[in-house]
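Progress note, sequence design subtask.
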Protein backbone atom coordinates (compact mmCIF):
# COMPACT_ATOMS: atom_id res chain seq x y z
CA UNK A 1 0.00 0.00 0.00
CA UNK A 2 1.17 3.51 -0.81
CA UNK A 3 0.17 6.47 1.32
CA UNK A 4 1.07 10.13 0.98
CA UNK A 5 1.59 12.58 3.80
CA UNK A 6 1.76 16.29 3.21
CA UNK A 7 2.22 19.49 5.15
CA UNK A 8 -0.44 22.11 5.72
CA UNK A 9 0.45 24.07 2.52
CA UNK A 10 1.27 21.02 0.39
CA UNK A 11 4.84 22.02 -0.59
CA UNK A 12 6.34 19.05 1.27
CA UNK A 13 5.07 15.54 0.71
CA UNK A 14 6.20 12.05 1.62
CA UNK A 15 5.17 8.94 -0.28
CA UNK A 16 5.36 5.88 1.97
CA UNK A 17 5.32 2.26 0.78
CA UNK A 18 4.13 -0.64 2.90
CA UNK A 19 2.69 -0.59 6.38
CA UNK A 20 4.03 1.58 9.21
CA UNK A 21 5.58 -0.27 12.15
CA UNK A 22 5.16 0.82 14.79
CA UNK A 23 2.48 3.47 14.90
CA UNK A 24 2.77 5.22 18.22
CA UNK A 25 1.11 8.04 20.04
CA UNK A 26 3.24 10.35 22.16
CA UNK A 27 1.84 12.58 24.88
CA UNK A 28 5.15 14.20 25.91
CA UNK A 29 5.23 17.91 26.56
CA UNK A 30 7.49 18.51 23.55
CA UNK A 31 4.99 16.86 21.20
CA UNK A 32 2.12 18.76 22.77
CA UNK A 33 3.90 22.06 22.12
CA UNK A 34 5.19 21.04 18.67
CA UNK A 35 1.77 20.00 17.38
CA UNK A 36 -0.51 22.22 19.41
CA UNK A 37 -2.49 19.05 20.16
CA UNK A 38 -2.59 16.91 23.31
CA UNK A 39 -0.70 14.06 21.60
CA UNK A 40 0.95 13.23 18.30
CA UNK A 41 0.98 10.16 16.08
CA UNK A 42 4.32 8.89 14.78
CA UNK A 43 4.13 6.35 11.94
CA UNK A 44 7.50 4.63 11.48
CA UNK A 45 8.54 3.41 8.03
CA UNK A 46 11.82 1.94 6.80
CA UNK A 47 13.72 4.96 5.49
CA UNK A 48 14.20 3.34 2.07
CA UNK A 49 10.40 3.02 1.69
CA UNK A 50 9.82 6.76 1.87
CA UNK A 51 10.22 9.30 -0.96
CA UNK A 52 10.48 12.90 0.21
CA UNK A 53 9.58 15.83 -2.04
CA UNK A 54 10.01 19.50 -1.17
CA UNK A 55 12.48 21.38 1.01
CA UNK A 56 12.37 21.24 4.78
CA UNK A 57 14.17 22.99 7.62
CA UNK A 58 15.47 21.16 10.68
CA UNK A 59 14.89 21.78 14.36
CA UNK A 60 17.03 19.69 16.71
CA UNK A 61 16.46 19.18 20.40
CA UNK A 62 17.52 16.78 23.13
CA UNK A 63 14.77 14.36 24.05
CA UNK A 64 15.65 14.95 27.68
CA UNK A 65 15.06 11.60 29.33
CA UNK A 66 17.61 9.75 27.21
CA UNK A 67 19.81 12.59 25.97
CA UNK A 68 19.30 11.66 22.32
CA UNK A 69 19.32 14.49 19.78
CA UNK A 70 16.18 14.37 17.66
CA UNK A 71 15.99 16.41 14.43
CA UNK A 72 12.52 17.37 13.27
CA UNK A 73 11.98 18.31 9.63
CA UNK A 74 9.40 21.00 9.03
CA UNK A 75 8.04 22.96 6.10
CA UNK A 76 9.56 26.47 6.10
CA UNK A 77 6.44 27.85 4.41
CA UNK A 78 3.68 26.62 6.73
CA UNK A 79 5.64 25.28 9.73
CA UNK A 80 4.22 21.75 9.79
CA UNK A 81 6.61 19.19 11.29
CA UNK A 82 6.23 16.30 8.85
CA UNK A 83 8.99 13.77 9.55
CA UNK A 84 11.98 12.94 11.73
CA UNK A 85 14.60 10.21 11.64
CA UNK A 86 15.31 7.79 14.46
CA UNK A 87 18.26 9.33 16.30
CA UNK A 88 21.51 7.55 17.09
CA UNK A 89 20.86 5.09 19.89
CA UNK A 90 17.19 4.66 19.03
CA UNK A 91 15.62 1.22 18.93
CA UNK A 92 14.08 2.29 15.60
CA UNK A 93 17.36 3.25 13.84
CA UNK A 94 16.98 2.86 10.07
CA UNK A 95 13.39 4.05 10.17
CA UNK A 96 11.86 7.48 9.94
CA UNK A 97 8.75 8.71 11.64
CA UNK A 98 6.10 10.46 9.60
CA UNK A 99 3.58 12.67 11.41
CA UNK A 100 0.43 10.57 11.34
CA UNK A 101 -1.91 13.53 11.09
CA UNK A 102 -0.21 14.60 7.83
CA UNK A 103 -1.85 11.65 6.07
CA UNK A 104 -5.25 13.18 6.93
CA UNK A 105 -6.65 9.66 6.63
CA UNK A 106 -9.30 8.52 9.09
CA UNK A 107 -8.53 4.90 8.13
CA UNK A 108 -4.83 5.19 8.95
CA UNK A 109 -3.67 2.32 11.21
CA UNK A 110 -4.28 3.04 14.88
CA UNK A 111 -1.40 3.28 17.33
CA UNK A 112 -0.21 0.15 19.11
CA UNK A 113 2.13 1.97 21.48
CA UNK A 114 1.41 4.95 23.71
CA UNK A 115 4.46 6.70 25.14
CA UNK A 116 4.89 9.41 27.77
CA UNK A 117 1.59 8.49 29.35
CA UNK A 118 2.73 10.44 32.42
CA UNK A 119 1.75 13.53 30.40
CA UNK A 120 -1.36 12.04 28.73
CA UNK A 121 -4.50 14.09 29.19
CA UNK A 122 -6.80 11.94 31.30
CA UNK A 123 -9.72 12.16 28.83
CA UNK A 124 -7.66 10.47 26.10
CA UNK A 125 -8.08 6.70 25.89
CA UNK A 126 -5.61 4.85 23.64
CA UNK A 127 -7.13 2.03 21.55
CA UNK A 128 -7.78 -1.25 23.33
CA UNK A 129 -4.66 -3.43 23.28
CA UNK A 130 -2.27 -0.48 23.07
CA UNK A 131 0.90 -0.96 25.09
CA UNK A 132 1.50 2.03 27.32
CA UNK A 133 4.76 3.42 28.66
CA UNK A 134 5.16 6.04 31.39
CA UNK A 135 8.01 7.63 29.41
CA UNK A 136 9.71 6.45 26.20
CA UNK A 137 10.66 3.01 25.01
CA UNK A 138 13.96 4.14 23.51
CA UNK A 139 12.65 5.54 20.23
CA UNK A 140 13.95 9.05 20.68
CA UNK A 141 10.45 10.52 20.51
ZN1 LIG B 1 4.00 23.49 4.05
ZN1 LIG C 1 6.73 13.20 22.25
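Output:
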Amino acid sequence: MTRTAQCHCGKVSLTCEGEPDPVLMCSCEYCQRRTGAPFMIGAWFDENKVTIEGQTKTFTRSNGDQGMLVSYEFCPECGTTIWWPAPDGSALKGKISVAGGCFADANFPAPTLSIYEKHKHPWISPPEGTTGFETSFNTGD
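The first helix runs from residue 29 to 35. Work on this subtask will continue into the next period as scheduled.
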